[in-house]
Amino acid sequence: MGNIAVVVGAGIGGLAAAIGLRRVGWEVTVVERAPLLDDAGAGISLAANGIRALDALGVGTAVRAAARGQYTGGTRTPDGTWLARMDGAALERALGTPIVGIPRATLHRLLRAELPPETLVVGAEVTELDRAEPGRVRIRANGGDRVAGGTEVELEADLVVAADGVDSRTRAALFPDHPGPAYSGSTVLRALTDRPLDLSSDFEITWGHGAEFGHIAFTDGRAEWHAVLNSPAGVRHTDPLGELRGRFAGWHEPIPQLLDATRPEDVLHHDIHELTTPLPSFVAGRVALLGDAAHAMTPNLGQGACQALEDAVVLASALARGGDVDSALRAYDAERRPRSQAVTVAARKAGRMGQQLSAPGAVALRNTAMRLAPSGATLRMILRHADWMPPRLPEPPPAPATRPE
């Protein structure tokens, strides 16, 4: 079995895959279209399954140190009434870790730090993926920091990992009959505050009619906030903060405070797409799909990044067992596809019963049901998806000893 891999995409899933592959003895090149890895993004929550995957990759300790545990908070109505409270301590007792919140830029930086700089090729667009020759895959990357502008470089590999996101070109090439991502009906605006805030909880979401506002608090006192709205695709606003102040006028604190602590230029706006049609396989020849390229889901369960991290660990473990690459990829597909596609469906259902619900009668019924639900109902819902144990990966080889000068 050869041991040269190319990972397409340097997001959280792609970097995690590269770390896992290197840990089990593979030589890895990560190809990223973006010209700069500028740590764009807002914040992210990681449940126990994501943290456990990071532990298996050897990055969990560093992530925990940089993250803030989500012990307090829950779900509210626009007037501030609590629908459900978060019990992070109970989660920690059940799973060994609470959900944690961390800026995406920090998580990305910690993952990059595990890879030698020469592993990453940025500003390089994959223009061809040739699977014609059995046992080998060739990629041509146009541009990149190792390549003269406008020229092509051919990278040969025994394995390609497609981690190129919800709009994956690799997926489209491998499965031309698949309809691709579909618009979920919701759009999200989000940002990090530009200064610390005195927040009374670690994590909150508030549900109105076809709208959600939430925040994640970080260790430095800043916070990520997100506003999810039912909306036609493609709608954009010349003054996003002004639009949100109007949309959420009268909603409880700290929502106005979070918006006031945000610079207009920091607001990100993306329509939410998902793979409503499941892929028939996460593997095509020597190409493995991973993360959003394989199972893009709505953010309603906070599981998108966690599932990508699971993918990375399971792929590395399958390849570490020995045997041929094709058998390892079949094992990866058999293990990951049923679970991740089930989580995708559960996230879609959670959105329809949560943020997307807009009819006044349906909203009132949902809110009443949540207020009357037993205190452990929320905990059981989280455990259903977060209580996952990763396969154990081999210990990385020791660093070569340096001779004293």
Write a structural description:
The chain has 405 residues and is of the alpha/beta class. Helix content is 34%, strand content 24%. The strands form four sheets. It has a seven-stranded mixed sheet with strand order 6-5-14-15-16-13-17. It is globular and about 60 Å long. The model has no long low-confidence stretch (mean pLDDT 91).
Helix-strand layout with pairing:
Elements: E1 4-8, H1 12-23, E2 27-32, E3 43-46, H2 48-56, H3 60-66, E4 68-69, E5 73-76, E6 82-85, H4 88-95, E7 100-103, H5 104-112, E8 120-122, E9 124-130, E10 137-143, E11 152-157, E12 159-162, H6 169-174, E13 182-192, E14 203-207, E15 211-217, E16 223-230, H7 240-247, H8 255-260, E17 268-274, E18 283-284, E19 287-289, H9 292-295, H10 304-320, H11 325-353, H12 360-372, H13 377-386
Parallel strand pairs: 1-2, 1-12, 2-8, 5-14, 12-19
Antiparallel strand pairs: 3-7, 4-7, 5-6, 9-10, 10-11, 13-16, 13-17, 14-15, 15-16, 18-19
